[in-house]
Each structure stands twice: as structure tokens, then as C-alpha cells.
Amino acid sequence: MKRIHILMIGLALALPTLASAQGVNRGTAGSPHDFSTNSWNLRRGVCSACHQAHHTDEAQIAPLWAHRTSTAAFVPYSSPTMNASVGMPSGASLACLSCHDGTLAINQGISGPLGGGSTLSGTIDPSAQIGPDLHTTHPISFVYDAALAAADGGLEDPTTYKIGDPKTRLTISTPPVPASWSGTSLTGKTINEALLINQRMECSSCHDVHKMDGSAPSSGILLKISGTDSSGRGSLLCRTCHVK
Ligand code: HEC
Ligand code: HEC
Ligand code: HEC
Ligand code: HEC
Fold it and tell me: Measured from the CB, is residue 122 less than 6 Å from ligand 2?
């Protein structure tokens, strides 16, 4: 028993050092979305603040969705130069906003507090609040397909442009992937495969909620593509879809 304890303390000391040396934490556990150690989460679930196996959200805005859905009065993005028509947030974006718009508790499940406790937790920290006014945030919840790219003229075709390809029509066409790219899980996939959900642009086009793919493991804000390219230039995420 004593030897196991010593081993466990050894591991506990060694793991954070290893992780911080690489600056990488892959996966939900240990990420900003790991609520397993919050006092309200008596079951210590890593996934259960968001998903359950049974009795989940009728609307299934995200797979096996266990969280209560926000009914806030959203103001969507609009601009005279937009080609896409953007409506109210839906699908996976609405799922994110159900915590991030600050109107519901983090553990507010579809039928009472999640996590085996009886009390609701607090709402999101103001530093991580997005919305309900979304007119100052990148447009979300709309179809981004080849037709939109053609109509806009300043977007890559999401069905043919692959992550890591040189840019079309630009003089500096360095492929906009991080110079020290370890997230090979997205390289060679089209924008549609790597970043869109059902051809739609959502919060998850830029962020990986589970901190798995692309740059997300090493990005504090879970960005799928972040860092600088081999010429030292940034804004890689924006330069992936936009031809600007
Ligand atoms: C903070 C909320 C949150 C947590 C915690 C979370 N997920 Fe998710 N999950 C989502 C959202 C939102 C989606 C849909 C959008 C997307 O895929 O980005 C999703 C999608 C999924 C999908 C389907 C799409 C895919 O990527 O395959 C699976 C499977 C999944 N989650 C499993 C898990 C498991 C297992 C855990 C625990 C280790 C977990 N999730 C933890 C929010 C969460
Ligand atoms: C169950 C509630 C919940 C859901 C659902 C959820 N989040 Fe979060 N998210 C949080 C909390 C809580 C934090 C930690 C905020 C803090 O205190 O900094 C966080 C942190 C983040 C951060 C890091 C911000 C920072 O300042 O550290 C990002 C980015 C993020 N979430 C994006 C998303 C996206 C995108 C989705 C949907 C795919 C999503 N979240 C779904 C609760 C949630
Ligand atoms: C076009 C890509 C993109 C989309 C779409 C997007 N984000 Fe972000 N997000 C970013 C970037 C880049 C940052 C870093 C800070 C910045 O540039 O404002 C960020 C920062 C954040 C943060 C950290 C706190 C902050 O305000 O800086 C949170 C939380 C977050 N996003 C959640 C969301 C949620 C929820 C959605 C959907 C409603 C979403 N994001 C949609 C790219 C995106
Ligand atoms: C996954 C693809 C994708 C990523 C990543 C992305 N965008 Fe976009 N963005 C789009 C699409 C599609 C539109 C809609 C364009 C339209 O319909 O006119 C858009 C719209 C915009 C608009 C509004 C255009 C208008 O006419 O009002 C701006 C500005 C913008 N993006 C800037 C950015 C910036 C800055 C980043 C990086 C933080 C970024 N985008 C990342 C796909 C993306």
C-alpha cells in the first residue's frame, strides 16, 4: 500500500512537469471543460456536464446533449458585405452558448442540476462570456459551401481547399499551419471535413471543445489552428478560410 502511494505521488509530481514541458494537454480531462473536480459534481464525471447516456435533450442540438438550452434573446451578426444569411445560433453553437452566454448555470441540466448534486453552480466567468449579443462576434450557424465561396470571392472552397495547402491567389502563400505543427490530425483534410459541422460554420469551427485536434491541445483557448507559420506570421485560423 505504501509503495503504491509513493508511486502515485511520484506520478503526480512527474506528470505536470512533463505536460508543461511540452505545453500540451490533450483531451477533455485537465482542460477548461473538465468539471470533474468541481464541488457540485459529486459523480466526478468528465463528460457528464455536457453528455449523458440516456434521457438527454429532445432537440439533440449536440450529440446526447444533457445541458439545458439557452433561451436568451440573441442578436446575430449582420453586415452589408455579408453574403451568407446568418440567423439565430443553432446546433452545436447553441450548445456552447448554453453555458457561455451567461444566462444558465454551468451544471444546469435538462432536468435539474447535473453531476449528482442538488444545487445549481454559478454561471460562466465574465471573461469567458460570449453573447447573448452576438453582433460583435464572428458570424456562426450558417452554411459555408462552394456556392458561398464563389459568391463571396474571398473565401477558399471548403470542399477542395485542404488544411496545409498553399493559399490560392496570394503572393505570400505559405500554408497557414503552425510552423511547429504537431496537430497532424487536421492536415490534408478539407475545411469541410476539418472545421465544419454538416457544412455549417459553428463555434466548433474554430474551437475544439474536447481539446483534441490540430493546435487545440497546446492552445489555452482551444483553437484548432493557432501559432505562426514557417515565415513567422500568425492569424493562421483566419487565413485558412479567408483569401485576404
Ligand atoms: C463542455 C461540454 C462538453 C464536454 C465536457 C464534453 N463534450 Fe463532447 N461534445 C460537446 C459538444 C458541444 C459537441 C458537439 C460539437 C463538436 O463536436 O464540437 C460534442 C460532441 C461529442 C461527440 C460527437 C462528435 C465527435 O467529435 O465525435 C462525442 C462522441 C463526444 N462529444 C464525446 C464526449 C466524451 C466521451 C466526453 C468526455 C470525455 C465529452 N464529449 C465531453 C461538448 C462537450
Ligand atoms: C457546461 C458548460 C459549458 C459548455 C457547454 C461549453 N463551455 Fe466552454 N467553458 C466553460 C467554462 C466554465 C469555462 C472556463 C471559464 C473560465 O472560468 O475561464 C470554459 C472555457 C472555454 C474556453 C476557454 C476560455 C478561457 O478564457 O479560458 C473556450 C474557448 C470555450 N470554453 C469554448 C467553448 C465552445 C466552443 C463550446 C461549444 C463547442 C463550449 N465552450 C461549451 C463552460 C462550458
Ligand atoms: C472564426 C473563429 C471563431 C469562432 C467562430 C468562434 N471563436 Fe471564440 N475565439 C476565437 C479566437 C481567435 C479567440 C481569441 C481571442 C480573440 O481573438 O478575440 C477566441 C476566444 C474565445 C474565448 C475566450 C474569451 C474571449 O472572449 O477571448 C471564448 C470563451 C470563446 N472564444 C468562445 C466562443 C464561442 C462560445 C463561440 C460561438 C458562439 C466562438 N467562440 C466562436 C475564434 C473563434
Ligand atoms: C472555418 C472558416 C473560417 C474561419 C476559420 C474564419 N472565418 Fe471569417 N468568415 C467565414 C465565412 C464563411 C464568413 C461569411 C462570409 C460572407 O458570407 O460574406 C466569414 C465572415 C467573416 C467576416 C465578416 C465579413 C462581412 O462581410 O461582414 C469577417 C470580418 C471575418 N470573417 C474575419 C475572420 C477573422 C478575423 C478570422 C480569424 C479570427 C476568421 N474570419 C476566421 C469563414 C471563416
Answer: no
